[in-house]
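Exam review. A common question shows you a sequence with its structure tokens and asks you to describe the fold in words. Practice with the pair below. Do the first one on your own.
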Amino acid sequence: MKIYLRPHSFSAISFDLDDTLYDNGPIIRAAEQSLLEFLNYRYSETLRWQRTDWLELKKRLILNHPELAHDTTAARLIMLEQGLLGLGYSRGESEEGANAGLNHFLAARSAFTVSKPVIKLLEALSEQYPLIGITNGNVDADKIGLGNVLDFVLHPGQGTRMKPYPDMFYSACRKLDIPLHSLLHVGDSHVSDVQGARLAGCQSAWLNPKFDGAKSVMSHGLLPHVEVSSLQELIAFL
């Protein structure tokens, strides 16, 4: 544990989800593969494209429509529709396929359960503090077992920007009815989580290494209040 700044008292804790409470990499890769197989089965023209072709299309769409960078669900939906159109499917077929593909991906993306040790840790913390989620992703917190331990989860999109923009931190503190400095945010990203929380006026606990054990290098910017090497070490800090 490393303490960089003197922490103040806080009255609620927010958690990033992906790579903080579980290893997100294998989950996303499996969901992406499942989506490709779904598309290949339902729309045979998609066999002409590899995963890289879809990613390139998504990059171009975000470049032309920067607001999509803050809404992963909308970006994927438009990517699917435009991809199917480009492969020769009609507007109706493309819209239907995009919606079906998105639903398939979202189901696969949330087809796991957070580990019991993490749930128990959150349950113990929830006896002392309100707990919430602030994520840049689109996982369904209820489906992965977090619905009973997090009071609510905030996602970007529909005008709400991703971390490190302060939008979700502001919204969280309004919903909790607490001042910004009374929220402690826990996350693995020094950019999204640490900078986001600090710039918003909240306190920050940086999980390093990530949940999968990958060590991160501190980027330029504001320091976290504390750096912990595991969620269990967070308990000791609190």
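Now try the second one, then compare your answer with the model answer below.
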Amino acid sequence: MGTHTDPASLYERLRDDGLFEESGEEVRLSDAFSTARERERAAVAALDEDALADLREAYVDGADVAATDVDERTLADAVAVHETCESVDRATSLHVARSLTRDGLDGSDPHVPDGFVSLSGDEIGRFLDAHAAAVVYCWREECDPCDAVRADLESLRGEGLFPDEIGLGAVYGPDNVDELRESYDVGAAPTVLFCAGDAVASRFVGNPGRGALRAETELLIDGV
């Protein structure tokens, strides 16, 4: 099925394949798709550059979008659409994923900096193994310093500070207390870990300010 399929027909296919659930007049993304989306976001975040490029090319083939315009989150969402909806091809899955983002249905957590991948505690190790270096932001809710750090990380990413080879991850502390404490010595939020390979090279606890985040990131990049 091509990306120019009639929208009404496409919606019916997506609904029948289980992407959406209807309850009266309410329409929501299915739990099955939401679960697949989180799983694929973590999986895509753990890919090396060559595997990521190959996967991206597989989904832009036949689509009206350039590979450079497809970020990792949208690509992972497209994989989840294709996994959930057997009748939808890869190019159409990418079209659907981009539509979900435009419509505000991409499941983004407002506490997670834009461009950062949400990770559970047991996903951190694989994430670090997949990147030469990484920045991991550990946060909690109702935390003014966390909000300030999140905003600074978003701003720095928007300026292009983080090159593609630097992994960007975010971990919700209260759900991952044991793993964070035992494996990464994290006991407070916000904490920002600067990791070289699978080792923590440095960290900030609390809100260090935008300048300090920039300086530490530049040191991390210089070592890659």
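Model answer, second protein: The CA atoms of residues 161 and 208 lie 17 Å apart. The two ends are 43 Å apart (CA to CA). Full marks require stating both points clearly.
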